[in-house]
Specification:
207 residues, alpha/beta, 7-stranded mixed sheet, 35% helix, 25% strand, ITPase-like_fam, Septum formation protein Maf isoform X1, hydrolase, Maf-like
Length: 207
């Protein structure tokens, strides 16, 4: 997917504004030689100030991208900088499910998600010298009907405690999910197909 711009990518410093091992793995799958730099942006935006989930999630990703870009842009590296930032959230109706506060909160979330279809939003921002590209991708995730024992066993594994919605699809949580409509990698936290499309557009149209 990145073949048309691969010769250009080597001239840029590409930074992933994240400390997530999952997102690092996904970026490496694309062949991008990206640095990891977790953002210090405080993710405390007021959801009520935004018209849609997409606007809200993109604003959070933009805050991460801009903080890292400003911090690294004049650090003496010399190469032009591109910062990739992303944020993911899980929704059920009008309710947002972020990362759980603790194990009990994870049990609460998973109990609500059991037997239901939740929608995952991943907002992505590409910050560069000429401006910003941003987009949101969505996927619908269908949970099987879970027993209390299954939920508590999964929470006890520790896997859901650092994930939006208290579940991950690329580990044991994948066994809870019989169906996904949309990009699997959107649910993991970085929609690869759309990211590649936007990177190609960035280099061919913006830079």
């Amino acid at each position: 997917m990145l073949a048309p711009i691969k010769h250009l990518l080597n001239n840029y410093r590409i930074v992933l504004a994240s400390g997530s091992p999952r997102r690092k793995e996904l970026v490496q799958m694309l062949g991008l030689n990206a640095e990891l730099c977790p953002s210090t942006f405080e993710e405390n935006l007021d959801r009520a100030e935004f018209k849609s989930f997409s606007d809200y999630i993109e604003a959070t990703a933009l805050g991460k991208a801009e903080e890292v870009y400003q911090r690294l842009n004049n650090d003496g590296d010399g190469r032009q900088l591109i910062v990739i930032a992303a944020d993911t959230m899980v929704t059920l109706g009008n309710e947002i499910f972020g990362k759980p506060k603790d194990a009990d909160d994870a049990v609460r979330m998973l109990t609500k998600l059991s037997g239901a279809c939740n929608r995952v939003f991943t907002g992505v921002v590409l910050k560069h010298s000429n401006g910003v590209r941003q987009f949101t991708d969505t996927a619908d995730v269908y949970f099987g009907q879970l027993t209390e024992e299954q939920i508590r066993s999964y929470v006890d594994s520790g896997d859901p405690l650092d994930k939006a919605g208290s579940y991950g699809v690329n580990g044991p949580g994948g066994a809870l999910i019989p169906r996904i409509d949309g990009d699997f990698y959107c649910v993991m936290g970085l929609p690869l197909n759309r990211l590649c499309c936007e990177l190609n557009k960035l280099f061919l149209e913006d830079l």
